[in-house]
């Protein structure tokens, strides 16, 4: 059984990730950077959370963000971007026990002297951030292939693509869709897309990246690989390998964030709400 780092063991790698990323980042960027800093194995990063939908590492990183936020070292915007605070920029290292003690002292329902995240207030904050992603991912994995294709097409169109089509051909080399991206109404370039609806325990491999790149050759300017799970470290390296056309990778964490940003089946009220009926109507 792979050993996933405890949430408090992620405090300092998370602060380092912020520094490496220029002081601010999205959740998926932070997750990727923390995995790199800690050199976590694919076996560890593919361990699903008990409720499914997201990885256990992503869930515990949400706890780490919550504690560092309550400690005043990081903050997040309504756009889903996290950033170091003024105090955070001056903090290179924290004592996990001190951070936990500080949060517990300032949370009336907390129990002191315990490294486990058990406060009701803390639990609600993390659940608000992660439960909607778990719900969204479960719905994505339950969609019919045609409904998922329509969703991807909608995402591409809402993101600025024109002439979006679904290939749906068994002999199309793994290309699931294609479209035209226009920049300021003047420049344009073609892009092809591949989608893999995998559960969190199934990561995209470098061979799949190579196969997709091979299918792209001579047919397009850009490739986008979307998965509902994540990519192995070797797959990420392959996607950005020197001398080969670079690919844009969108993992499950980023994909559901995009749905939220575009308000496609995911809306923000007092908390983030996943609209199951919207997906069923695809």
Automatic annotation (TrEMBL):
Residues 7-91 form the Restriction system protein Mrr-like N-terminal domain. Gene3D superfamilies: 3.40.1350.10. GO terms for molecular function: DNA binding; restriction endodeoxyribonuclease activity. Residues 141-258 form the Restriction endonuclease type IV Mrr domain. InterPro entries: Mrr-like_N_dom, Restrct_endonuc-II-like, Restrct_endonuc_IV_Mrr, tRNA_endonuc-like_dom_sf, Type_IV_Methyl-Rstrct_Enzyme. GO terms for biological process: DNA restriction-modification system. PANTHER family: MRR RESTRICTION SYSTEM PROTEIN, TYPE IV METHYL-DIRECTED RESTRICTION ENZYME ECOKMRR. This is Restriction system protein. It comes from Alicyclobacillus vulcanalis.
